[in-house]
Each structure stands twice: as structure tokens, then as C-alpha cells.
Amino acid sequence: MVQESLLEATTAHAPALAGTGDARDAADAPIAWNRDSILFSSCNEDSGSELRAFGDLSGKHVLCITAGGGRVLNLLAARPERICAVDLNPVQNYLLELKAAGIRALDHGAYLRFLGARECTARLATYRTLRNQLSAGARAFFETHPQLIDAGVLFQGRLERYFHRLSKVLQWTQPLGARRLFECENIQQQRAWVHRLNSPVFRAMCETACRRSVLQMFSGDPGFYRYVPPEISLHRVIYAGVIEHFTHHLARKNPLMQLVFFGRFIDETALPAYLNAASYDQIREALGRVQLEIRTARMDEVLPQAGPAAFDAFSLSDISSYLDAAAHDQLFADTLAAARPGARLCSRSNLHHRALRPEHEARIQRDRALEHELSIADHSCVHKFLIGTIR
Question: Which end of the chain is more exposed for a tag (fewer CB within 10 A), N or C?
Fold first, then answer.
């Protein structure tokens, strides 16, 4: 569940959105982003979805939202020529700098230990060997907050800390069979456990954790459900999405659900590409030759500045979930203006993807079959997709 900090921020926290009476008024207020802390630190979005949507990116120029940096690094597996990574929160970009510096300097095992996926007692010492690769802003941030490095920065985002707390609650589901779910070797075996696990007690615990008020209080995400239509019951739809995903895809292969249920990664073979032993060297080689541009700015600044025919692929993550109607329309107008002929678009949105303006829709040849498939297969279990080729 990756939510990107690409909107104008004015205060440290989001306005209250829980309940029904004040929700409409709150939805009209600007989303307030925190720009001095890590909101998302791991790769909570399934980059496999973007890689399927884009295919081979050899020689291509890609626009990607930074967030935790993982999706930017995972896209290196498709061999682009250039990636422009954008985030309004400079700290998210500092995190990407740090992750990239680690890949350049460390072998796979050392990298996992440094980030926090494996045990380590010398992360600060490792950081000192990397610091000269970082910008002055990134150095100042991490040296002001050394505890983030020491604790394993991969799990220090506000959302990841929420997952850690949530996993403590979900430990109570293990006697019901939750751990066994992640031990299943095939989907038939897992479906039997899903049927057994899908009990009123398990459902109540999970749905409570996904209520608007709980997410607002603990997740640190200022707009996850901001523009979800009020008739959509957030907690029920999230729960149903997870159950449907588990009915078709092995839980053990979902790193996000590992974080949600256990607060850590329990199966390294399921790690995202930039963390995975099977693809780590490929990512490192690509990082050495791909032009990586990191920009701290709003999308309505970056896209117009890029000019026409600037990009071959757009990984828009789920920023549309945080935009009001006018900004949503402007995002897609700017995207279409910056697209080369035949550019690919992959846009995510939380639980519900709003319709485009007719003139924008007419410019995109939608791949609705892939959109539907990824709405079930994607590790987030909550994202709806808009995927297509820009004409």
C-alpha cells in the first residue's frame, strides 16, 4: 500500500477524517504532508505490476514516484536509459539516495543487514562508508537522525511502524491459522486454510485494524482514503481484497503481507527485486549505467518543465488517491502532454480509480484485462489500476 507525498503540505499531520459528519468538509481541505520524516521506507507497492505494465524499457525514459525508493530501484530490472524519481518530501528522496549508495557499495548480505532485513550491530559504521555518496541534505538528515539507521531504516517509515504495531495485534490470529497460511506450498492447500481462517473472529480483528479512524490515528498516511466514495466500506473492502488475493496467490510470496502479519520479512525469496539475491547483481549493474535523476518537487512542476515527448513510461503510483478533482484532471493532462507517442501509463489508486475526463480517456488505449488481473494479483490487495498506451 504505497501512498506518495507529492502534494503541497502545510502542517505535520492530516486533518481529521474519521466519522461521517465532518468527513466531507475535511475532504475539501488541503492534504497536510509531513516533509521532515520518512513516511514510507520499504517497497510496499508491488513493482511486478509496473514491470508487467511496461515490459522491456531498454532505452526508455521513465517517470516514477520516489516514496520508499524501492519501486524506482526495482524498475532498473527493465533496463531503462533514464529514471526521473520525484517526490515532494525531500526525506523520501534522501532515503532513495541512501538505498542506491548501499547497492553500489555493498554485497547482497551486507545490504540486507544494513537496511534492517537481517540482524546487524554495525549499521552506523556501514553508513559512514556510504555518507560521501550522499547529497549534503541527505547527510544532514541521517546524521541528525542516526537512530533510523541504527534500527534498520527499511522499517522506520510511519507506515512501516504502523505495520509493526498491527502485526502485534495480528499475532493473536496465529492460533486461528494465520502463520500456517504463510507456510502453504501450493494454492490448493492455501485455499483450504483461507476458508478455515475466514472466521467471524479473524474478520472482526482484521476489519477493526482497517477502519478509517484506526488508519488515521496510527498509519501516518494523510490521505489513504480521502477520495474513496463514501458508499465504499473501507474496512470491508480491504479485508475482502486480502482474502481474494490469498485465494489466488501464495501468501508466502507477498512481502507486504509478511510485514502486515509479522512486522518483518520471513521469506527472503519473496523480497522485491532490489533486495532479492536472485536479482541484486542485475539491479546493481543497471544502477551503474542508468541515469537516475532525483527531484524534490510537485508533479505539476516536473511534468510541464519536462516539455513534450519527455517520457516513455509513467509510474504514477497512487498519487491520484490524494488529489482533488481539479488536481486529478491536471495530473493526467500534464502526463499526456509529456508523453512520447506509444508511452505506457501505470496509475494506481486506493480501492477506487476515478474516471478520467473524456478527452483524456480518448488518448489512452486501456488494457482493462491487465487492470483487472493486477487488482487481484498486486501485493497491495487494495489498488485499482489504470494501465494503457498513450496515443
Answer: C
* Residue where one domain finishes, among candidates 251, 270, 289: 270
Q: How far is the C-alpha of 91 from the C-alpha of 70, rounded, in Å?
A: 14
Which DSSP string corresponds to 5-56? --S---SSSPPP--SSTTHHHHHHSPP---SSS-S--S--S-HHHHHHHH--
Total tally of structural domains belonging to the chain? 2
Indicate if the alpha-carbon torsion angle 284, 288, 291, 296 is positive or negative.
Answer: positive
Domain annotation covers residue 115: no
Give first-to-last CA distance, the chain, whole Å.
29
- Any idea how long the chain is? 391
C-beta separation of 27 from 55 below 8 A = no
Per-residue pLDDT in tens (0 to 9) along the chain, 391 residues: 333 333 333 222 232 222 333 334 345 555 556 677 898 999 778 999 999 999 999 999 999 999 999 999 999 999 999 999 999 999 999 999 999 999 999 999 999 999 999 999 999 999 999 999 999 999 999 999 999 999 999 999 988 998 998 898 888 877 777 888 999 999 999 999 999 888 898 888 888 888 877 877 776 665 667 778 888 888 899 999 999 999 999 999 999 999 999 999 999 999 999 999 999 999 999 999 999 999 999 999 999 999 999 999 999 988 877 888 999 999 999 999 999 999 999 999 988 898 999 999 999 999 999 999 999 999 999 899 999 999 9
| Percentage helix, strand, coil for the chain under 3-state DSSP, each rounded to 5 | 55, 10, 35
The sign one gets for the Cα dihedral 262, 263, 268, 269 is positive
d(CA 160, CA 59) in angstroms, rounded, equals 34
Nearest to 58 by CA among 276, 290, 340: 290
Provide the domain limits for residue 192.
168-270
Residue 252 shares a structural domain with residue 310 = no
Q: Note whether residue 316 is domain-resident.
A: yes
Dig out the grid coordinates for 131 from the structure. Answer: 555518507
Question: 3-state DSSP call for residue 231?
Answer: coil
266 and 308, same domain (yes or no): no
